[in-house]
Design goal:
By secondary structure, this protein is mainly alpha-helical. It has a single domain, classed as Orthogonal Bundle (Tetracycline Repressor, domain 2). It contains 13 helices and no strands.
């Protein structure tokens, strides 16, 4: 039992479960808008369980599927599986357990969430293989995160409103854009290994341009989203804050200076998601 606990702790460190913060605030934004305020605690609790377990399953499966690739990449060879800290079988077992928890949470929310859960799992787990097939794998990651607002809306309402799909597309472009930036670290290795990415296919300058265009489109969709949901002052301040933070994110990295990429990828994206949730929550509760 002590060994299982220790391996589980290593697994949670490996998948960086705390980075669930990227998509979770957008899911909670949808929860607030769908409920017109704060829904029942039971609903919020199962949404949180579903979000964390889904991401945990996706990340653990990604590490399992990419174990051999990670071992060949100098940047990732110290990860738990190639470093010998975890076996592939243990990580696969963790993935199965996380999937089971996700399915339980989906079933506890409503019938539609349970019916759609296999589709969500197909997207979350299938992303791991896209880099072997297409340079647009970044969009696959974007969709995996972008599903969060629509899934959360369905969890509250039991149906889908097309307006929340606007936020799903916005989050898809946001996440896809920062994945393009993050993959710039590996563009030389990807070329040698035959893996696909925009930096590998187009070079760093074009990849940065693509990420910027994706983020500009994301900001445009946030403006549309604000109009669709009738944002007041606080909501619009949230949109402005995201514009400023996205601008700062792009200001601290460039094709010739990737030294602050981790700060842009991990810190700033978490801040962006939380800030947007905070302003939308204020807009909902302070009107």
């Amino acid at each position: 039992m002590a060994g299982v606990v220790a391996k589980t702790r290593i697994t949670l460190e490996m998948i960086k479960w705390e980075h669930s913060i990227f998509a979770l605030p957008f899911a909670l934004t949808a929860v607030l808008l769908a409920a017109g305020g704060w829904p029942a605690w039971r609903t919020v609790g199962w949404v949180l369980v579903a979000m964390v377990s889904a991401r945990s399953a996706a990340m653990a499966f990604n590490r399992w599927a990419d174990a051999e690739l990670d071992a060949e990449n100098p940047r990732t060879k110290s990860r738990a599986i190639p470093a010998g800290l975890l076996s592939k079988s243990f990580v696969l077992g963790f993935t199965v357990a996380a999937v089971a928890v996700f399915l339980l949470a989906a079933g506890e929310l409503n019938r539609l969430t349970l019916m759609l859960s296999p589709v969500v799992l197909l997207v979350l787990l299938g992303y791991s293989y896209l880099k072997r097939l297409t340079r647009w794998s970044h969009i696959g990651l974007g969709v995996a995160l972008g599903l969060a607002p629509s899934a959360a809306w369905i969890a509250v309402r039991g149906s889908l409103d097309w307006r929340i799909v606007v936020l799903t597309v916005a989050v898809t472009l946001w996440a896809g854009g920062f994945d393009v930036l993050y993959s710039c670290q590996d563009f030389e290795h990807d070329r040698k290994a035959g893996l696909n990415s925009l930096p590998q296919a187009w070079g760093l300058d074009a990849a940065f341009l693509a990420a910027r265009l994706m983020h500009l489109a994301m900001l445009g969709l946030l403006v549309l989203f604000g109009f669709l949901f009738g944002f007041g002052l606080w909501g619009w301040l949230g949109v402005v804050a995201v514009v400023v933070l996205i601008g700062y994110e792009h200001a601290i990295v460039s094709p010739r200076d990737l030294s602050r990429l981790n700060a842009a990828f991990f810190t700033m994206n978490g801040v962006i998601a939380i800030v947007f949730l905070g302003f939308v929550a204020a807009d909902v509760f302070l009107r």
